[in-house]
Specification:
By secondary structure, the protein is of the alpha+beta class. It is built from 23 helices and 19 strands. Helix content is about 50%, strand content about 15%. A six-stranded mixed beta sheet has the order 12-11-10-9-18-19. Helix 2 runs antiparallel to helix 3 (about 55-80) and helix 7 packs across helix 16 (about 470-490).
Length: about 725
């Protein structure tokens, strides 16, 4: 440990993140005393331990770790309670007024026309209950009708009749928590316009606001870029230069994801680094051509400062997303290192960036952007710490163009390999896929991005005030077309996208901690991290998968048996629930058999009774599934059909049907959200009498997430936004 003492500080952001992670996974929201008092007491005790044992390594390690974990817990609790409560939204069509905060364009499904979505702030509902209410403190997303061509601008106050819905519940217990994401994003829900949009006031409420002006600039740049470059090429170019990624067609996104090039569509460290490299090279060339300045000024440091200023402008223009913020902090540390003559890229710079982001936005540690961004950079820095000397010797031995080309190809392949391997388990956990050809695709796409696409993009931005951007955008589009074609070709190779089933949370945590252990230490014990990474990546293959899934609204049922996933029923959110189920099981959904049974006989529908009633058997256990009920539960199920059933599931209320079985219906889904059913082998205790509850295990979404501020009440209800009391 003494040999690694200079690396101990690198574990500070890891400890902060663990404290925040512990808070976010609590089942019950802690009171103010436990959330603030206990961490403060632990910080005090850790400070005493540090003071007492400053001359010894273990008191310092334990004291600093306890202090960092407590601070991480505290900042996570504070970030949660700084957010406004989730409001109650009207359950029917309502007149709404609000101010346009952003205008988004999404690619249509299956070659449909692009859809426009406006983000409303300060929304008011025009209903008797909401009369006199304060404006919503959260934003609303409103999808505009396809036939509505009303011209909108940022800051416009608009009116429409719309139908809204709160953030959806997870598709299955342990799935993606959209409600937590909406809580920290300041979103109250989304909806669709029922009538045409009417503009009440044009841009009067946001004049002079810097954020609004930047949004207007991004919108104008997006229009000009996509005018010069139509279709997918223009959408990708707009993503690289303005951060507007909503217009990219879905098939292009799928090809980039399958080929391992999806990082090119997310403005992050690669793009910021290329922009700053172009600006720094241009500035250094300009100083070199100015003899007086070259002889008297610190041109390298000034060029780095100019590149950092340009990087800040690019980050603001593209929306200040999390990966860009991380890269921006590291770029600032790099510029400072250039100015004082220290190492430009180091693990300490990454640790500083991670510490600042965890302290400012602790909720981001739960997101894929934070985890993939830091994992990739950490692997790159650690890899070049180990291999840097060999790479430098290889470069020094270059004695011709062939050798120089081999050096650059080797460095590029090594960079893609390190970053790809570090993010591979995270992609498995969040996207359920493995892309085996990501190195080959990046060998071609990244150089094109570095030497052709991004330099021409910067030239296009510089030429826009002169209205000459088309001379740079057209060649830029040629390079983007090559990358799009490359992504399509690689995506259609055999085994280009291997599906992987759901990775549990402990598996992902094992991967991340193992990666930190492997990269942050330098002694031989760093290799122990490979065991943790392997255990995490193998966790999906040892996880017991549920036999039956029920959607959050109780309208859809999925049966998983013998490598097949059968889905039936109807749900408002079926477009997102079914893909989530398919990803979790790594299987394509199939419809329930109609009037027959599956080849293995485990699932049969309508063979003896009602065609909407199915029976699923697993070993000695049976489940009765009522996938459709036009009587809304008023017609009970026959007693002879209920006999011998361990569990009865219905998309409608069961009411008095099958009282002896485990009953799951629309009401239980309304109370508990999505439900997963496991048909177990029964009790292992020999003296315990066997009952139905021993053979059926039901895990619900509400039991897993508990009572937290972002977990909405049954049915998706929030806090009523009541009007102010009348003043006397």
């Amino acid at each position: 440990m003494l040999a690694e003492q200079r690396r101990l500080v690198l574990w500070l952001p890891v400890a902060l993140a663990l404290g925040a992670l512990f808070y976010f996974h609590l089942r019950q929201e802690p009171s103010v005393f436990y959330a603030c008092g206990v961490p403060v007491l632990m910080v005090g005790a850790a400070a005493i331990l540090l003071w007492w044992g400053w001359q010894f390594v273990w008191p310092r390690v334990i004291g600093a770790a306890c202090m960092a974990v407590s601070i991480g817990f505290l900042v996570a609790w504070g970030a949660t309670h700084r957010q406004p409560p989730m409001p109650e939204l009207p359950r029917r069509g309502v007149d709404v007024t609000g101010t346009v905060q952003a205008i988004l364009t999404f690619a249509g499904r299956d070659d449909a026309a692009p859809a426009r979505v406006v983000v409303l702030t300060g929304a008011r509902f025009e209903t008797p209950l909401d009369a006199g209410m304060l404006p919503l403190r959260r934003t609303l997303r409103l999808k505009i009708r396809a036939d509505d061509t009303t011209k909108l601008a940022l800051g416009d106050e608009i009116w429409s009749r719309a139908l809204f819905a709160p953030p959806s519940f997870p598709a299955f217990p342990g799935g993606r928590d959209v409600q937590r994401e909406a809580w920290f994003a300041g979103s109250a829900g989304s909806g669709r316009a029922l009538d045409r949009i009417e503009v009440l006031n044009t841009g009067a409420t946001s004049e002079g606001r810097i954020g609004s002006e930047i949004e207007r600039l991004r919108e104008r740049l997006d229009i000009r870029i996509r005018t010069a470059l139509p279709d997918a090429t223009g959408a990708v170019a707009s993503t690289l230069l303005t951060g507007e990624a909503t217009a990219i067609p879905r098939i292009v996104r799928q090809d980039f994801a399958a080929s391992g090039l999806s990082h090119l569509l997310a403005v992050a460290g690669l793009h910021l680094g290329l922009v700053m490299a172009v600006l720094m090279g241009t500035a250094r060339l300009g100083f070199a051509l100015w003899e007086w300045a070259a002889l008297r000024w610190p041109c390298k440091a000034l060029s780095a400062g100019a590149a950092l200023a340009g990087g800040v402008a690019y980050a603001v223009l593209t929306g200040l997303h999390l990966p860009v913020l991380r890269s921006l902090v590291m770029a600032a540390v790099a510029v400072l290192g250039i100015a004082v003559g220290r190492r430009v890229f180091s693990m300490r710079g990454l640790a500083l960036a991670a510490t600042l982001l965890v302290l400012m936005q602790p909720q981001d540690i739960m997101g894929v952007a934070f985890q993939m961004s830091f994992a990739a950079v950490m692997a790159l820095v650690a890899g070049y710490e180990v291999l840097g000397a060999r790479v430098a010797r290889f470069r020094a031995a270059a004695d011709g163009p062939v050798h120089t080309f081999l050096y650059h190809a080797t460095v590029l392949a090594l960079t893609s390999l390190l970053a790809g391997l570090a993010t591979l388990p995270i992609a498995m956990a969040y996207f359920g896929v493995v892309q085996p050809f990501f190195v080959l695709a990046n060998l071609v796409a990244v150089p094109l991005m570095a030497v052709w696409i991004m330099p021409l993009g910067m030239a296009a931005l510089a030429l826009m005030p002169l209205h000459l951007e088309v001379f740079a955008l057209r060649p830029m589009g040629w390079g983007i077309s090559l990358v799009v074609h490359l992504a399509s070709c690689v995506a259609h190779w055999p085994a280009a996208r291997l599906a992987v089933s759901f990775m549990p949370g402990w598996g992902l945590l094992s991967v991340l901690l193992g990666l930190c252990w492997l990269c942050l230490w330098r002694q031989r014990w760093r290799l122990w991290g490979l065991m943790a990474i392997g255990a995490g990546m193998a966790s999906p293959f040892f996880l017991t998968q549920p036999d039956i899934l029920i959607s959050p609204d109780g309208g859809m049922i999925a049966v998983h048996t013998n490598g097949h996933l059968f889905v039936n029923g109807h749900s408002r959110d079926a477009f997102s629930i079914q893909p989530a189920w398919e990803q979790a099981f790594a299987r394509q959904a199939e419809p329930f058999p109609s009037g027959t049974s599956t080849p293995d006989g485990s699932l049969s529908c309508g063979e003896e009774t009602d065609p909407d009633i199915c029976i699923f058997t697993k070993g000695a256990h049976s489940a009765l599934l009522r996938v459709r009920d036009t009587s809304d539960g008023t017609v009970p199920l026959p007693d002879d059909l209920c006999d011998g059933m361990d569990v009865v599931i219905s998309t409608a209320p069961l009411r008095e049907s099958c009282p002896k079985a485990v009953r799951l219906d629309r009401f239980s889904a309304w109370r508990n959200g999505a439900q997963a059913v496991f048909l177990t082998s029964g009790s292992k205790e020999p003296n315990r009498p066997k009952n139905i509850q021993d053979t059926v295990t039901v895990i619900t979404d509400r039991a897993l997430r508990g009572e937290r501020p972002w977990v909405m009440k049954p049915g998706g209800h929030g806090l009523p936004n009541l009007p102010l009391a009348p003043s006397e």
